């Protein structure tokens, strides 16, 4: 099967979602910053199609971009699976693709919670989406159960060796946290106090556009901007343990979980499904419900960490899941048709 993936826009980090399949003959990955050769045109296209703008006013003439967005080397008769993420959800664009590729399959992938996307995209409706897409996938277990979606882990590629050579080496730390404040700032700061009180060396980088406190705690950086990608990866490589604190209402592991698993780091997490994971080992992973409950003894044992990761959340595994689920659905439709 051929695949066209309209990738979410997380700047440089977004390339890692599907990097391992980017050069495959049957895969085309489309990102916001590689539609046109000229950055100015990319900027204009992004602004014109912006959900924020179109929530307020449905801008005219958006179709002028559709042909360029669908600049792929597949024939009209080919079976193509289009994987759409929320950044690319435009109902008219979906109709355009179906006209161009009538034999195609359509899959929607929620890389964030449904609630967060419904709040940002006024014309998104789950009931209508179920009619338009062959499959809907989500990493968030609560949404999977609530909306009867298919569960998938977040697809994620290793940082390639040539990229690593360009990444600065950072000072080793015992615990690393990098993430947005959102509705968890209290838990993040409480965890920091607990860990530093135990004399553990910590580096916390909290993205908070609304942060106004004049008191900046030593070891915590508050910033209105996301950390640059190369620094993010460099600090991840230099950490002995990664702290993962989920947003309230979220029941899906973040990329911090997979950073720990893929790069063999210890993990502190409040992700409730951690203990059900095949990677769970109490010597490597500590689950807590409240930051005050973090057991400091966890850091006193030094283990050679090896999760025996075998690509369980690789982009290849992600595409295999989609292919398998589409085949099951087609088989079920044929069976039901024969019975009828």
Protein model, in words:
- By secondary structure, the chain is α/β, with parallel strands linked by helices.
- The chain has two domains: 2-157 and 314-339, 3-Layer(aba) Sandwich (Rossmann fold), CATH 3.40.50; 161-299, Rossmann fold.
- 34% of the residues lie in helices and 17% in strands.
- The protein is built from 13 helices and twelve strands.
- A six-stranded parallel sheet has the order 2-1-3-4-5-6, sandwiched between helices. A six-stranded parallel sheet has the order 9-8-7-10-11-12, with helices on both faces.
- The longest helix is centred in the C-terminal third of the chain and has 25 residues, at 315-339.
- The chain is globular.
- The relative contact order is 0.11.
- The model has no long low-confidence stretch (mean pLDDT 91).
Mean pLDDT: 91
Total number of beta strands = 12
Gross geometry: globular
CATH third-level topology of the largest domain: Rossmann fold
Q: Low-confidence spans: pLDDT under 50, at least 5 residues?
A: none
Label the structural class.
alpha/beta
Order of helices and strands: EHEHHHEHEHHEHEHEHEEHEHEEH
Largest sheet: 6 strands, parallel
């Amino acid at each position: 099967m051929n695949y066209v993936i309209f990738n979410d826009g997380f700047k440089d980090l977004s390339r890692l979602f599907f990097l391992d399949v980017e050069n495959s003959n049957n895969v085309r990955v489309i990102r916001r910053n590689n539609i046109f050769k000229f950055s100015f045109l990319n900027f204009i296209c992004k602004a014109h199609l912006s959900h924020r703008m179109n929530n307020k006013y449905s801008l005219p003439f958006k179709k002028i971009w559709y042909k360029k967005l669908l600049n792929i080397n597949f024939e009209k008769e080919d079976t193509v699976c289009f994987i759409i993420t929320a950044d690319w959800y435009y109902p008219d664009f979906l109709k355009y693709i179906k006209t161009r590729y009538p034999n195609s399959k359509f899959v929607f992938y929620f890389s964030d919670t449904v609630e967060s996307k419904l709040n940002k995209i006024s014309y998104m409706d789950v009931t209508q989406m179920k009619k338009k897409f062959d499959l809907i996938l989500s990493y968030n277990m609560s949404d999977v159960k609530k909306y009867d979606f298919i569960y998938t882990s977040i697809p994620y590629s290793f940082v390639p060796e040539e990229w690593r050579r360009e990444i600065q080496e950072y000072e080793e730390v015992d615990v690393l946290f990098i993430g947005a404040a959102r509705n968890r700032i209290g838990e993040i700061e409480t965890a920091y106090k607990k860990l530093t009180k135990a004399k553990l060396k910590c580096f916390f980088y909290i993205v908070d556009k609304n942060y106004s406190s004049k008191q900046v705690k030593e070891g915590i950086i508050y910033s209105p901007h996301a950390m640059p990608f190369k620094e993010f990866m460099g600090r991840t490589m230099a950490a002995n343990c990664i702290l993962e604190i989920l947003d309230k209402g979220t029941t899906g592991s973040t990329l911090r979980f997979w950073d720990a698993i893929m790069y063999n780091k210890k993990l502190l997490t409040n992700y409730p499904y951690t203990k059900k994971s095949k990677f769970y080992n109490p010597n490597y992973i500590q689950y807590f419900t409240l930051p005050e409950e973090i057991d400091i003894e966890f850091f006193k044992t030094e283990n050679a960490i090896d999760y025996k990761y075998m690509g369980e959340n690789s982009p290849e595994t992600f595409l295999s899941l989609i292919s398998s689920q589409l085949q099951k659905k087609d088989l079920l439709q044929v069976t039901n048709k024969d019975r009828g």
